[in-house]
Amino acid sequence: xxxxPLAPGExxxxxxxxxxxxxxxxxxxxxxxxLTCDREHILYVNPKVIVGVxxxxxxxxxxxxxxxxxxxxxxxYPGGFMEIDETVEEGAVREAREEVGIQVRLGDIVGVYSRxxxxxxxxxxxxxxxxxxxxxxxxxxxxxxARWFRPEEIPWDDxxxxxxxxxxxxxxxxxxxxxxxxxxxxxxxxxxxxxxxGGLKAGWRHKACRTSxxxxxxxxxTVPCSPLHTKRCGLCTM
Length: 238
Hints:
By secondary structure, the chain is α+β, with helices and mostly antiparallel strands. It has 3 domains: 1-46, Ubiquitin Ligase Nedd4, Chain: W (Single Sheet); 48-175, Alpha-Beta Complex (Nucleoside Triphosphate Pyrophosphohydrolase), CATH 3.90.79.10; 186-231, no CATH class. It has 2 helices and 12 strands; from the N terminus they run βββββββαβββαββ. Strands 4, 5, 6, 7, 8, 9 and 10 form a 7-stranded mixed beta sheet that branches. β8 (102-115) and β9 form a beta hairpin.
């Protein structure tokens, strides 16, 4: 993920149309003060758009450790500023390729997040889920390293921004809900939520498979729900 933009107005001193100095003025045509020059050219200051993707494979997600300021050394998913000539989907795919060397197939949008000025730089972040479909994990120039994490291993204390944590928690919730719904459709009894994210405790358990070859009473047993459980019931796929 690229560097943060400057706070609105810090680098905006001259009109890009005529070169005259800019100043905040309230014009009759506007509802709030705008940066304008003495010719009343208006320079609108809008949020920057950031796109990102949470790459997933075999129950783990790929995260990278930032090699740039700000937040040098923090862990995040691939992401960065959109280019002017690309869609949000194209931007997310490009960032994954540039930052960690992988090709992703985008899934659903995990969420849209914002950090408005003046407390923050003024950004809108759009984050997708994605499956890794090609490439080789190779950290780019903005990454110190890249590593696969199981959901319970996500380094929550070493994330760079609030929006990073929001997106990861939303991704975990979507995965948890998807697993729960699938288990319920197949007749499993979900007792508690899986132990991923948001301080949830370990111990999500559901009834074991009721296969025709199971001994009497085995169907009522409980087993941990984890990616390894796919060998037994094929339902809890991460």
